[in-house]
Specification:
heterodimer; A: 818 residues; alpha+beta; Beta Polymerase, domain 2; Four Helix Bundle (Hemerythrin (Met), subunit A); 5 domains; four-stranded mixed sheet; four-stranded antiparallel sheet; B: 112 residues; Alpha-Beta Plaits; two-stranded antiparallel ribbon; 6 strands; 20% helix; 37% strand
Chain lengths: 818, 112
């Protein structure tokens, strides 16, 4: 009887030396001897023309303690194999009885030299085949066929191997930063190391032989580390267990590293990163080389190249890497290129950057106004890809040493699946890929870079000692934001988001979201719709990054309901909550008194000062208007003494210029000074392409507001847009609601959008003796959704006037009179 | 044995769990569900458009307990889940014919 107990010496070798490879080779040699003896006793007396081959890990002499033993029984013909069935069974049974877990296959040389589309693993396992015992002539036939087969089917074998690897990576969310990784299957594990070896073997195979693969010393070191781990896990659990559980991490750290699990796990991730990078680099190479369609796309992508960067095989290369020595912004321009086009830096570029990291750290610290360089990059379409590349090359921590504490940091809890840095990067990716109604919300954020910065730092304090990470995260973000010269108002937004990043989750968990008081309380804490939108998106991205199923549809719906309730609470507050006793010099007090409290929260001291200057100008001219460029839109701010039709006139002026109003706010202070803000799009780029037009628009708006130009005449000259198809027609709807607000009547109008519609609606309200307190405007394709909060003589609008207004508004929407 | 199925407000889950823990009930299954009883949902206006929130988010707690404890469990869940407003939820009680612990084939109340 051949007992597994006799295989104890490899374990002793391992425990004594920690050298896994020697232990594996010893175990392989022992199993070789056992298999050969059993074959001599049971198989060959009856089947002398068979041959036995070791394949897979066993073939490589890397037989892990409890891994299956992959045996290939080679026969000259299928007939011979069928005839020997009973003998083969007896042979396998003998091995099983002796405690060896055999995984066998029976093949002919011809079968081994066929492409198995549905069993790509068989083809791959033969790359590591090794003759054990039996008919040498039969084996020679296979040994001659195999290299020729590999050479002539190289492309198919590579494609199948790449497909298997990509499927496996995707099963693990394409990341190696798992809190409890599987040392064999997780990206960056032993299977990936093998992938690199196999791809090298396939690439180098000549028609006469398959060479043993050569890998880099860094990769070899990583492989030894993983092999050591896997040996430990097998012997510790007494089975084929490859899961590096929290318990296993503790016990390994205890034995190997004085109990410092965090440091030891960082070591693990460093090795996993080396293997993963090599595997992904090789996968990218073979996939790019094997696809004609991709090659065409690649040619097109190479046109993206600029003075600093060239594109080759879907990767960005430095044209003059030596400039990295003197110009640290070249590194940032590389990542800006990635953020803009989604083309990642080449392996060579990553190495060139990596070699200069210590110097880069010092150089980054010397750049004034780093935020000015980073903000545009953080708002680009592929910013998450760039950030990941920055993280992998070490540039992210060179820029922000504050983040080094969370690198590869394992925080154990039941729900989190990734390390803290990976969770952060996944959250940022989620923000860019967000779906459902949250997608629209994302598109409304005018400064996505602020949101990204807040996400980057939201958990940065988890690396610090002490209870609760939020205040540590705020401190770290503050020090980073100050260092890169982020302007104070932007900094306030970022720190606010980090400080409150658990707030909405807490509301979801512990407050009745349908209780109006909940919405009012949250609204009071957040202050503005803009902050609510950003915090909602941050919460969604953060929860989704905990694990792939954390953001269930139920939870997303719940979050959206909170968003809606708080949004409504915030917008209703607009016309009820007024600044009671403003602070500051007398002229400031005079200006602010009576504005909604929202005004103070949505405008910086600088903007308030600008508005006060505008008010000064308006005293002389009757009205003052300012027009400025925002990131993706324009904004018109006007200050004037209130008078009927003022809002309508301003809206009409913008329409007469072909502008599309997307947002508007109207405030009035106690002295009857009105401050209106219109955010509008310029679809024909009139203002961008004609430098004198913003001034002309400003002058015209001032003349209209002062009553010197008739806006009606201007609108008559606008070309009429072609109407949408009949099927897409929007039926106008006007509804009144006097319950939604304490002091005003809410009028909701949904109508087909057309130039001047807002002007017509606002005129209809003004000419019927009602005063517009607040306007919320949205446009979806050709559908206008306008909400007005109006009063008449300082009160809600009564029934009689509502009827009159309804008729006038319907007429403005184009409904014929009843 | 009785099976208790309690449908409660999501924000009451922690309180209910704590209260059950307080009387020694640890085993339960929790599901995120949507629904309505007499509360019937409501309409929300968001940016001028109506959203019908007809199925409201709720949490379902399921547990099987010895028959002699079910009154005590009902009282505990009711007290912890009550806010006094429409929408607090409902509790249903069923008779359970058998329970089996798969690991060791324990039967009846000893499997709970």
């Amino acid at each position: 009887m051949i007992g597994e107990s006799r295989l104890s010496s490899p374990q002793e070798t391992f425990l004594a030396t920690g050298d896994a490879l020697t232990a594996l080779a010893e175990r392989t040699a022992q199993v070789d001897a056992l298999v050969s003896r059993a074959a001599a006793e049971t198989l060959f007396p009856a089947l002398p023309s068979a041959a036995l081959l070791a394949v897979g890990g066993y073939g490589r002499r890397q037989l892990f303690p409890y891994s299956d033993i992959d045996l290939l029984l080679l026969f000259a013909s299928e007939r011979a194999a069928v005839d020997g069935k009973e003998v083969i069974s007896a042979f396998l049974q003998q091995l099983w009885d002796s405690g060896l877990r055999i995984s066998h296959s029976v093949r002919t040389p011809a079968e081994c030299a066929e492409v198995h589309e549905n069993n790509a693993e068989l083809n791959i396992s033969l790359l590591d085949q090794r003759f054990l015992t039996g008919d040498r002539v039969l084996y020679a036939a296979l040994a001659e066929k195999l290299p020729r087969f590999v050479q002539s089917n190289r492309e198919t074998l590579v494609r199948n191997l790449a497909r298997l690897a990509r499927e496996r990576h995707s099963k693990y969310e394409n990341t190696f930063y798992h809190l409890e990784p599987n040392v064999k299957e997780t990206p960056g594990g032993l299977r990936d190391y093998q992938l690199v070896c196999w791809l090298a073997q396939l690439r180098d195979a000549s028609g006469s032989r398959i060479e043993a693969p050569q890998t880099s010393p860094e990769l070899e070191q990583a492989f030894r580390h993983m092999a050591r781990l896997r040996c430990y896990l097998h012997w510790q659990s007494g089975r084929d267990n490859n899961q590096l559980s929290f318990e296993a991490q503790d016990s390994i750290a205890e034995q190997w590293d004085g109990g410092d699990t965090a440091r030891w796990m960082r070591e693990y991730y460093r090795h996993a990163r080396a293997i993963h990078r090599a595997a992904v680099r090789d996968l990218d190479r073979v996939e790019a080389a094997s696809s004609t369609l991709l090659a065409q796309f690649r040619d097109w992508r190479s046109r993206l190249a600029n003075a600093d960067i060239s594109v080759h095989r879907e990767r960005a290369h430095f044209r003059a890497p030596q400039q990295l020595e003197t110009d640290p912004t070249l590194t940032l321009r590389m990542f800006e290129f990635t953020a803009r086009h989604g083309v990642r830096p080449s392996f060579e570029a990553e190495q060139q950057i990596g070699a200069r990291l210590p110097r880069l750290r010092a150089q980054f610290a010397e750049i004034d106004d780093l935020w000015k360089l980073l903000e545009p990059m953080f708002g680009l379409p592929h910013a998450p890809v760039a950030l990941r590349a920055m993280h992998e090359t070490g540039v992210l921590t060179a820029l922000f040493p504050e983040l080094s504490q969370i690198e590869c940091l394992v925080i154990r809890d039941f729900y989190h699946r990734y390390t803290v840095d990976e969770h952060t990067l996944v959250a940022i990716r989620n923000l860019w890929e967000i779906g459902g109604p949250f997608r629209d919300l994302r598109s409304e954020i005018t400064r996505p870079a602020l949101l990204l910065f807040a996400l980057l730092f939201h958990d940065s304090g988890k690396g610090m000692a002490g209870e609760g990470h939020v205040s540590s995260s705020v401190n770290l973000a503050q020090s980073a934001a100050e260092r890169i010269h982020m302007p104070a108002p932007d900094r306030d937004v970022v720190l606010f988001l980090i400080r409150k990043h658990l707030e909405l989750s807490a509301v979801m968990q512990s407050r009745d979201v349908f209780d109006p008081q909940t919405a009012v309380d949250v609204a009071r804490q957040l202050g503005t719709v803009e902050r609510l939108k950003m915090l909602t998106l941050l919460t969604h991205a953060d929860i989704s990054a905990v694990n792939p199923t954390a953001m269930s549809p139920w939870r997303a719906e719940h979050l959206w309901q909170i968003y809606m309730m708080v949004y409504n609470a915030l917008t209703r507050e607009l016309e009820t909550d007024r600044i009671p006793a403003p602070m500051g010099p007398p002229e400031r007090v005079e200006f602010l008194e009576g504005f909604p409290t929202r005004y103070l929260r949505t405008h910086t001291d600088g903007e308030i000062a600008e508005h006060m200057v505008l008010e000064g100008s308006s005293r002389a001219r009757g009205a003052a208007v300012e027009i400025r460029r925002l990131d993706s839109a324009w904004q018109m701010t006007l200050v004037a003494r209130d008078r009927p039709g003022l809002f309508a006139g301003a809206a009409g002026t913008l329409s007469s210029f072909g502008m599309n109003i997307v947002k508007a706010e109207a405030f009035a202070n106690r002295r009857g000074v009105v401050l209106d803000t219109f955010t509008f799009e310029d679809p024909m780029r009139t203002l961008d392409l004609n430098p004198s037009e913003p001034d002309r628009l400003r002058n015209l708006a001032e003349r209209v507001i002062a009553g010197r130009t008739d806006v009606r005449a201007l609108l008559r000259n606008r070309p009429k847009p072609s109407p949408p198809s009949r099927k897409a027609r929007i039926l106008p709807r006007v509804s009144f609601n006097s319950e939604a607000s304490c002091t005003a009547t809410l009028i909701e109008i949904v109508a087909e959008d057309r130039p001047g519609l807002l002007y017509e609606l606002a005129s209809a309200i003004s000419t019927n003796g009602a005063n517009i307190e607040v306007v919320l405007i949205d446009t979806e394709a050709h559908k206008a959704i306008d909400v007005f909060y109006v009063t008449a003589e300082g009160k809600k609008v009564d029934e009689v006037r509502q009827q009159r207004l309804a008729e006038a508004l319907r007429k403005a929407c184009g409904v014929p009179a009843a | 044995m009785k099976k208790i199925e309690a449908i409660i407000q999501p924000f009451k889950l922690d309180e209910v769990k704590e209260a059950l823990k307080g009387i020694g009930i640890d085993g339960m299954t929790i599901t995120e569900v949507r629904g309505h009883g007499r509360q019937k949902g409501h309409k929300e206006v968001y940016r001028g458009q109506e959203y019908n929130v007809d199925l409201l988010p709720k949490v379902k707690i399921e547990m099987v307990i010895p028959s002699n404890r079910y009154e005590e469990v009902l009282r505990t869940v009711t007290a912890a889940a009550r806010s006094g407003k429409i929408g607090d939820g409902k509790i249903f009680v069923y008779d359970v014919a058998e329970a089996v612990r798969i690991r060791n084939d324990d039967r009846g109340e000893s499997a709970l």
